[in-house]
Design a protein that fits this description.
Keywords: ATP-binding, Membrane, Nucleotide-binding, Transmembrane, Transmembrane helix. The chain has helices at residues 20-23, 30-45, 49-82, 86-135, 138-143, 146-153, 155-188, 190-196, 201-237, 239-244, 248-274, 276-300, 306-347, 409-416, 439-444, 460-464, 473-482, 486-491, 509-523, 539-551, 588-594, 597-606; strands at 369-376, 386-393, 398-402, 424-429, 432-433, 446-449, 527-531, 557-561, 573-578, 581-586. By secondary structure, it is α/β, with parallel strands linked by helices. The protein binds adenosine-5'-triphosphate.
Length: 607
């Protein structure tokens, strides 16, 4: 089965489906849903077949203990209560002891084995999702909400965890119990059995309708789960602005709309599922009334014995629970199917930027970086962001890209790291087209400090050494000094051990930037890319950082994006980017002498 056949295909190949309409696809053929279930079972359940087999055997023992109860009641009534047989009493007591001991052991084993399997499946799924997500293109993350992605890795995995456990219990234990009890009642009295079946057709129509409705509702509910995560993520991420501008009221409204939306759907799901119990109740009642009326008369007239009727009625009552669960197994499968589809929608997504079949490691990462007539657009059919962009960055040079906001500067760095690929032209490093270079060797050669600094809630030291866990304290300190960060770090409570808070929230913007620069310098990569990396620093500290970076560069090519032109005066080459093209290039003095856009911006900024 081709992976693509098992997923719902949204219109934009980079987007996962989140809109309710697209989520409520009732027209998906059963064959495709089944094949997706089979695929999930083969990939994630089959590896635990032995554990499952033990669980199913334990369930069979458990089920057998239930099926033995009608026989026990028959003996109790006929041999002990009616015939007063002492031997039968001892027999029954012994059987009860054995039965309940076996049942206790089987119950334990079943629960333990199922928990083991479900925990292993959860771990495998989440690891696989994590691995897969990390391999996807940047474009995927720029087009999909984090909440929707997290919901699939958490909510959907949890749903699968609980539904598959229920399904296995039902298929293992309830099916055996059901078959055993039905076989017993059929054998005990076909006539009473036929009477008991009288109400069965009542079940069919509502069950089919309810299942159909459940699938649509479940998709909607699970999609709303992602929207809630997303709403929280966005609201809490921007909490500073929310508080400072007294926007809590609006946030509360925004959050409660999705929360209440989900509750509505959850209640519809609950109502639809709850419909099953009264239906089974009614069917059982009809069966009992029929059997008691006819069977009771037969006992009174002496045609049947009391123990027989007692055992039969007990069987009918014992059938209630397994029947109720069996009727819900389809609903559980629907829910499970929705989560599986949502998870495979992520797992089947293929990264477009991958190693070419004949990819080779980057041979000369410190070589020239050349953009050869590069054209690039973020959308396949969108306007180009870079349009015939041509520039050569000499090996070991420091090059600054300046120009108006939105002119394409960050995009240039994105293309060097091959986070996106040119639609035309090539990016060449040391004579090698990076399209034919292994991603690992390319990105290993790059240190990037971007506008959004990536800090974790860990110590300053751990943040600087992220990606270089073997770095010594001295190396970390040297990087911090070069980033003009050591002074403030030593002033923190705990120094390098200071915990920076989520996303570095306990540091100032400029401090965060310096920690990020220190991390990039510690990587000691041949290509250093600074995207507005010193924008939050004051002029004096920025100048220190710049001077250190330039002094340390020996053989390292440095690409700098900056709006403050003072930051770039010392660069070997300054490249003015306008509407995706190089408008002018040269060194600071050369560009000033030229009297073009750079000279004008410089005059304005100084003025
Ligand atoms: N992920 C994206 N998807 C679609 N369009 C994008 C994406 N990133 C950037 N763009 C668009 O590409 C253009 C160039 O963006 P880029 O970030 O390269 O500009 P920039 O020169 O670095 O701007 P700034 O100086 O404001 O940071 C902008 O018009 C922007 O809207």
């Amino acid at each position: 089965m081709a992976p693509s056949e098992t997923t719902t295909r949204p219109a934009d190949p980079d987007r996962i489906s989140e809109t309710p309409r697209r989520d409520m696809r009732l027209d998906e053929p059963l064959r495709r849903r089944l094949s997706r279930l089979k695929r999930f079972a083969a990939e994630f359940i089959r590896p635990h077949a032995l554990d499952l087999l033990i669980a199913v055997l334990a369930m069979t023992v458990f089920a057998a203990s239930v099926v033995a109860l009608p026989w026990l009641f028959k003996t109790l009534v006929n041999d002990i209560l009616v015939r007063r047989d002492a031997d039968a009493l001892h027999g029954v007591v012994a059987v009860v002891l054995v039965l309940f001991t076996a049942r206790a052991g089987a119950g334990y084993l079943q629960q333990f084995m199922l928990s083991r399997v479900s925990n292993k499946v959860t771990t495998a799924l989440q690891n696989r999702i994590a691995d897969h997500l990390l391999g996807l293109d940047l474009a995927f993350f720029q087009k999909n909400s984090v909440g929707q992605i997290i919901a699939r890795a958490t909510d959907d995995v949890n749903v699968l965890n609980s539904t598959t456990t229920n399904i296995v219990v039902t298929l293992g234990r309830d099916v055996v119990t059901f078959i055993g009890l039905v076989a017993y009642v059929l054998w005990a009295s076909p006539q009473w059995f036929a009477l008991a079946l009288a109400g069965a057709p009542l079940i069919a129509v509502p069950v089919v309708l309810a299942n159909r409705k459940l699938r649509a509702l479940t998709r909607r509910g699970q999609s709303l789960g992602g929207e809630i995560l997303q709403a929280f993520e966005e609201g809490l991420h921007g909490i500073r602005g929310v508080k400072a501008e007294n926007l809590e009221r609006f946030e509360r409204k925004r959050l409660s709309e999705v929360i209440i939306g989900r509750r509505r759907v959850a209640m519809k799901v609950a109502r639809t599922r709850a419909v099953m119990s009264p239906i089974v109740d009614m069917v059982t009642a009809v069966a009992l009334v029929g059997v008691l009326t006819v069977g009771g008369s037969q006992v009174i007239s002496g045609e049947s014995d009391a123990g027989e009727l007692m055992a039969f009625v007990t069987s009918l009552m014992l059938l209630y629970e397994p029947l109720r669960r069996l009727l819900q197994v389809n609903a559980q499968l629907q829910i499970c199917g929705v989560s599986i589809a949502r998870i495979y929608e992520i797992l089947d997504r293929r990264a477009r930027i991958v190693d070419a079949p004949d990819a080779r490691p980057l041979a000369d990462p410190a070589g020239d970086i050349r953009f050869e007539n590069v054209t690039f657009a973020y959308q396949d059919d969108g306007a180009p962001v870079l349009d015939g962009f041509d520039v050569t960055i000499p090996s070991g040079a420091s090059v600054a890209f300046v120009g108006p906001s939105g002119s394409g500067k960050t995009t240039i760095l994105n293309l060097v790291a091959r986070l996106y690929e040119p639609s035309q032209g090539r990016v060449v490093i040391g004579g090698q087209d990076i399209a034919g270079v292994t991603l690992e060797s390319l990105r290993e050669s790059i240190a990037l400090v971007s506008q959004d600094v990536l800090l974790f809630d860990a110590s300053v030291r751990a943040n600087i050494a992220y990606g270089r866990p073997d770095a010594t304290d001295e190396q970390v300190a040297a990087a911090a000094r070069a980033a003009a960060a050591e002074d403030f770090i030593l002033g923190l409570d705990g120094g390098y051990g200071f915990r920076v808070g989520p996303r570095g929230s306990r540091l100032s913007g400029g401090q965060r930037q310096r920690v990020a620069i220190a991390r990039a310098l510690l990587r000691d990569a041949p290509i250093l890319m600074l995207d507005e990396a010193t924008s939050a620093l004051d002029g004096a500290i920025e100048a220190r950082v710049q001077a250190n970076i330039l002094a340390m560069r020996k053989g390292r090519t440095t690409l700098i994006i900056a709006h403050r032109l003072a930051t770039v005066v010392a660069a070997d080459l300054i490249c003015v980017v306008e509407r995706g093209r190089v408008a002018e290039q040269g060194d600071h003095l050369g560009l000033l002498a030229r009297g073009g856009a750079y000279a004008e911006s410089h005059r304005l900024q100084r003025g």
